[in-house]
Q: What sequence folds into this?
């Protein structure tokens, strides 16, 4: 029995060592969609809650432009952040609406992560990425926004101390 167990373990180790990881032949591509320049209101904190530290950043307006759409960001949305100081990780969820230059309203829910840590060499590392989801009218020329995955790379320093979001469609 003991010899059988040793044989099985040795066989599994051989198979595991010999297994190679294959890289998928189809790597998704990204297609640039737009840049949003978001203006922000005064940040306030709800404080420490049972889920972490809740911070709210009002979205007061701004503009957006890309190859297929252009318009304004509407006042009234907000960026809701939940920070965990133990892990240096913040979950973000911005909920707001935009209006295209031709009068179409589009709702956005943008979820993401902000994380500060150290890389493998011990150097400071900062990660801030989001995945916006769009809700555009099905009967509009923007309905294509409803049927794709998007990613964005936010950057501080937008208009008036706001934030700039560059958005890509995953093809």
A:
């Amino acid at each position: 029995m003991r010899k059988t167990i040793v044989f099985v373990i040795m066989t599994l180790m051989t198979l595991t060592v010999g297994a190679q990881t294959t890289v998928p032949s189809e790597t998704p591509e990204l297609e640039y969609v737009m840049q949003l320049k978001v203006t922000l209101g005064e940040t306030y904190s709800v404080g420490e809650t049972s889920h972490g530290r809740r911070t709210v950043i009002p979205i007061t307006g701004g503009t957006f432009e890309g190859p297929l759409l252009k318009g304004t960001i509407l006042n009234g949305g907000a960026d809701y952040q939940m920070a965990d100081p133990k892990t240096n990780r913040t979950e973000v969820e911005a909920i707001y609406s935009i209006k295209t230059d031709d009068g179409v309203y589009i709702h956005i829910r943008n979820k993401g992560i902000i994380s500060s840590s150290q890389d493998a060499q011990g150097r400071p590392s900062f990660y801030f990425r989001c995945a916006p989801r769009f809700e555009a009218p099905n009967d509009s020329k923007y309905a294509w926004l409803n049927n794709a995955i998007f990613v964005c790379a936010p950057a501080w320093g937008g208009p008036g101390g706001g934030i700039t979001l560059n958005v890509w469609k995953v093809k």
Summary: The chain has a mean pLDDT of 88. The helical segments are 2-18. The two ends are 54 Å apart (CA to CA).
